[in-house]
């Protein structure tokens, strides 16, 4: 008995009953799905429509044909007057043409004079190039002369060496 009561007293002293605060359950809001799928399908349909667009046929405009007016028969006097006017007009036109031809001849002469001046300038340039060529020739000559001199000296040296050797041999004998 003793033990049982001891246990009871211990429980009373140590363990305090504390009320646990209940956590409020927060309801998670469900995310509404965006209606994107429907939009995408609509766009696809539009694209298909653009591909299947037919080219507009351009209608060719028909040329309007002018109808000839019916001419009434006129008196002989009127016809004669018209022919006279035509003849005078032709004469005036021919006079103008001759004046134009004369002007053309004058312009041609001016062009030829300009061409002659250009040729003179070209000849002057050619003289300068000739001088340059002469300089190059001189340089080449100098180089060749040096080579020739070197060859001659080398030959002389060889000869002297040979002579010395022969002299030595003779003395030895």
Short note summarizing the structure:
Residues 1-173 are annotated as: Disordered. By secondary structure, the protein is mainly α.
Secondary structure: elements and pairs:
Elements: H1 2-14, H2 36-51, H3 76-172
Question: Would you mind describing this structure in some detail?
Answer:
The protein has about 170 residues and is mainly α. It has a domain at about 125-173. Helix content is about 75%, strand content about 0%. The longest helix has about 100 residues, at about 75-170. The radius of gyration is 62 Å and the shape is flat. The model has no long low-confidence stretch (mean pLDDT about 70).
State the end-to-end CA separation.
155 Å
Structural class: mainly alpha
Gross morphology: flat
State mean pLDDT (0 to 100 scale). Answer: 71
What can be said about the biggest beta sheet? Answer: none
Instruction: Give a count of the beta strands, DSSP E runs of length 2 or more.
Output: 0
Query: Fraction of residues in helices?
Result: over 70%
Compute the gyration radius: what is it? 62 Å
Which strand-content bin applies to the residues?
Answer: under 5%
Could you state the order of secondary-structure elements as H and E? HHH
Give me the number of helical elements.
Answer: 3
Task: Give the low-confidence spans.
Answer: none
